[in-house]
Amino acid sequence: MQEHEFEHTSVLLEESIDGIFSDPEGIYVDCTLGGGGHSAGLAARLAPTGWLIGIDQDQAAVQAGKQRLATANCRVSIVQENFRSLGLVLDSLEIGLVDGILFDLGVSSHQLDMANRGFSYMQDAPLDMRMNPDAEFSAYDVVNDYSEHQLTDIITEYGEERWAKRIAKFIVDNRTTGPIETTGQLVTIIKKAIPAGARRDGPHPAKRTFQAIRIEVNNELGILRDAFIMAVDRLKPEGRIGIITFHSLEDRIAKQTLQQLAKACVCPPQMPICVCNAKPKVKVRNKPIVPSPAELEHNPRARSAKLRIAEKL
Which of 84, 165, 217, 288 has the largest CB neighbor count within 10 A? Predict the structure, then answer.
């Protein structure tokens, strides 16, 4: 694959577009442009008066999206920005409310497959993992600067790794002879830390630790709740939000945030009567949708994906 190519197989493509689309002349936001698959699918349904906004913090995704959507029949605006700034992006385009918003979370196939981005435990590369290559903070900083306690905490919380404490100790011990600079070095350390019997079954031994470091580098979970609330605030009545998640931590935040927004009362349970006067903002439209067997056969990376959809009241 060439450096300039941005390949990504969109997960739950038709299901997510069906879930949020209602008006060919409407305004739709793809908050995670990636390879542009979901955006292209939305654009194909929009009339010339419709408007598609694509957002991504990765410049490679922005350039690929501009190329892919250059022949779209609708109005297209592509912005390099983190989706936490959705409100500012819409304000800059002088857009108030929109008809649909889609989030496709996690790392893209392109980012995984480009060895020099340092996301993959299957290829040796510099420790990086920045979704925004212009950001200063990288996986190198986490691996080499975090204390053993900090490493244990993030690998436990974000990776749900039972051997987190042992992995953290091995990382810190290995740093005494010099910095850990590559993904290959880190994978070797993780394999040494996890007992052989535990490595025989289940996913690649480095998968959970790499996930945890990536989440920490990009503050992936920290921005989700506020971003989902902001998105719902910028929906028109009957507009829809779709959220595709790839692991339990993301999905828990999506589920809990939408459930909270669907509640009529947010008073503490011990309050004898409601004093908040809150009204539900959304109706959650479905149980999570998961990929079909046919999609999983075509794209095994989709196996953990879940799609949640809610409609603005």
Answer: 217
Place of tokens 């046919």: 294
d(CA 138, CA 203): 24
Residue 55's DSSP bridge partners are 79
| Cβ-contact 310, 261 below 8 angstroms | yes
| CATH class, range 13-106+221-312 | alpha beta
Quick: pLDDT tens for 79-129. 999 999 999 999 999 999 999 999 999 777 677 777 789 999 999 999 999
Q: What angle, rounded to 10 degrees, do the helices at 148-159 and 207-218 form?
A: 100
Pull the structure tokens for residue 198.
């535990």
Question: Which residue matches tokens 């990382």?
Answer: 171
Give span(s): CATH 1.10.150.170, the chain: 121-218
Q: Is 118 left (phi over 0), alpha (psi -120 to 50) or beta?
A: left
In this structure, the dihedral spanned by the alpha carbons of residues 264, 243, 303 and 158, taken in order and rounded to 10 degrees, is -80
Contact 257, 228 (CB under 8 A): yes
Cβ contact 102:29 at 8 Å: yes
CB 253 within 8 Å of CB 224: yes
Backbone angles phi, psi at 54, to 5 degrees: -110, 135
Sequence ranges of the chain with CATH classification 3.40.50.150: 13-106+221-312
Q: What is the pLDDT of residues 250-302, one digit of tens each?
A: 999 999 999 999 998 878 888 888 888 889 999 998 799 999 999 999 998 89
